[in-house]
Design brief:
The protein contains 13 helices and eight strands. By secondary structure, the chain is α/β, with parallel strands linked by helices. The structure holds dihydroflavine-adenine dinucleotide.
């Protein structure tokens, strides 16, 4: 109910100025974002590894129309991957990449630049001993992102993709990607999408999520079940058992700072659990999306703002 007003508020420059003046270490920011530097991200991956959780690290920033900015994002990933390898954490942490952050939206050259940049990150990930998963953005980019995945997989077949259950097309995409060697992260979907492409009703989205899970769990690939929803997790566990899956051939994923106790419980019960860890200076948009998903955090957030003054 509060989701739309909060997202409108998030676009206000004054609110943005006030919030970004908060140090990243302040309560509400630190709860969802690991910090601003690669060192912070590596430290978060280390803490997670200590209690058996894996990580996928995301350098925050999306939608760039500036080739230099795209290049800076690639450099940030290359630095991160080097530091992960040096810290001996590459077995526990991979990276998640948004193609719009590495040039996908650049006029005319977007496809070429983003594929080449993604290839550089995939190569560095392989050298470090880990993998890349391509995040999925709004529906206007789905075809392009899947085409890039296909291209990357020719040289880096370990590259993973995200599918969003709320899109009408996704059950078919799951079938197409449920093959051996394929890694698919299934999430509900985070963007505001029109009725002709996406289910609007949350029960319809949940039903679609279950249909997609059935396809992925019955298939030959490696399903990555990305949700905080206890019902979806129970259903995923039942489907995994039905299809004779073991913890090494599928995994659960949640966002940093959300349902941490459940993350630890799943890891302690022997499941493969991976936490999506965002870091970087561009944390504002990410933070506001997380708050909009869970308006009960609003009081905590407002209290943090007031205590800044
Ligand atoms: P939903 O928001 O419907 O919540 C269902 C239930 O989960 C709630 O009723 C509650 O029980 C529990 N829950 C949810 N949030 C909670 C909280 N903060 N505290 C306690 N309980 C909570 N999206 C996208 O479009 N592209 C992408 O690439 C990705 N990538 C991605 C990676 C990973 C690892 C995750 C976990 C998610 C994404 N997403 C994403 C985001 C995703 O699409 C979605 O917006 C959020 O995960 C929220 O959806 P849920 O499945 O958690 O259920």
């Amino acid at each position: 109910m509060l989701r739309q007003p909060l997202l409108v508020l998030a676009r206000s420059e004054r609110v943005k100025e006030l919030v970004t003046r908060m140090p990243v270490s302040s309560g509400i920011v630190a709860r969802y974002v690991a910090g601003e530097s690669a060192a912070h991200a590596v430290a978060a991956a280390r803490r997670l590894a200590e209690d058996g959780r894996n990580a996928t690290l995301d350098f925050l920033g999306e939608d760039t129309l500036d080739e230099k900015q795209a290049e800076a994002t690639v450099t940030a990933y290359l630095t991160l991957l080097e530091q992960l390898a040096e810290a001996g954490l590459a077995r526990h942490a991979e990276v998640s990449v948004k193609l719009s952050a590495i040039g996908q939206a650049l006029p005319e050259v977007g496809r070429k630049v983003s594929v080449e940049n993604a290839r550089r990150i995939c190569r560095a990930a392989r050298n470090a001993g880990t993998t890349v998963t391509l995040d999925m953005e709004d529906h206007t980019t789905t075809d392009e992102t899947l085409a890039t995945l296909h291209e990357l997989r020719k040289d880096f077949p370990e590259t993973g993709a995200v599918l969003q259950a709320y899109l009408h097309r996704t059950e078919a995409d799951c079938r197409a990607l449920a093959h051996e060697g394929s890694r698919v992260r299934l999430c509900k979907g985070a963007y505001r999408e029109p009725e002709d492409v996406a289910f609007q009703d949350r029960h319809e989205v949940d039903k679609a999520y279950v249909r997609c899970l059935k396809v992925l769990m019955a298939g030959q690939g490696y399903p990555m079940v990305a949700t905080h929803d206890p019902r979806m997790i129970r259903i995923a566990e039942a489907l995994a058992t039905r299809h004779g899956r073991t913890p090494g051939d599928h995994e659960y994923q949640m966002l940093y700072g959300i349902r941490t106790d459940e993350q630890k419980r799943l890891a302690a019960a022997g499941h493969t659990m991976r936490v999506y860890v965002p870091y970087g200076q561009e944390w504002y948009g990410y933070l506001m999306r997380r708050l909009a998903e869970r308006p009960s955090n609003l009081t905590f957030f407002l209290r943090s703002l007031v205590s800044q003054k």
